[in-house]
Structure formats: C-alpha cells, structure tokens
Amino acid sequence: MPDAVDVEFSKDLLTGADEIAEFLFGDQKYRRKIYYLAERSKLPVFRLRSQLYPPSKRKSLAQGLDSHENKMRT
Prior knowledge:
Elements: H1 4-11, H2 16-25, H3 31-39, E1 46-48, E2 51-53, H4 58-73
Antiparallel strand pairs: 1-2
C-alpha cells in the first residue's frame, strides 16, 4: 500500500499534453500549443513513448514559468 508521500507526489505530477494544457492554460483544447512549445524548446518536457511529461511537479513548473516570464519582462 502506498504511503501518504507517494500519493501526494503522484497527485502533483502532470501526465500528457492534455493535463499540462489544463494546468497552464485552463483548458485541454490548448494541447496542440503544448506540443508546439515543446518542439520549439519553449516548454521543458520529456517524452516517454508518445506521452509528454514536465520534468518537475506542478508547483515547480509554475515557479519556473514565473521566473522565465519575469526575465522576459526585464
């Protein structure tokens, strides 16, 4: 039986372009944009077979994107 840490960690992971689009843009209809950004190296992801995964948890991904956005503004 998984412990609380494993369950919490698995809830914090994003799996696939649909989940990443929902998290970043609030709607799964932006899944093609996720593939485009990944292709252009604008979004850090890795692939396992045909599935996309961000290299970190939701919180870390959001913090990384915020810092990238702040750098672009200055």
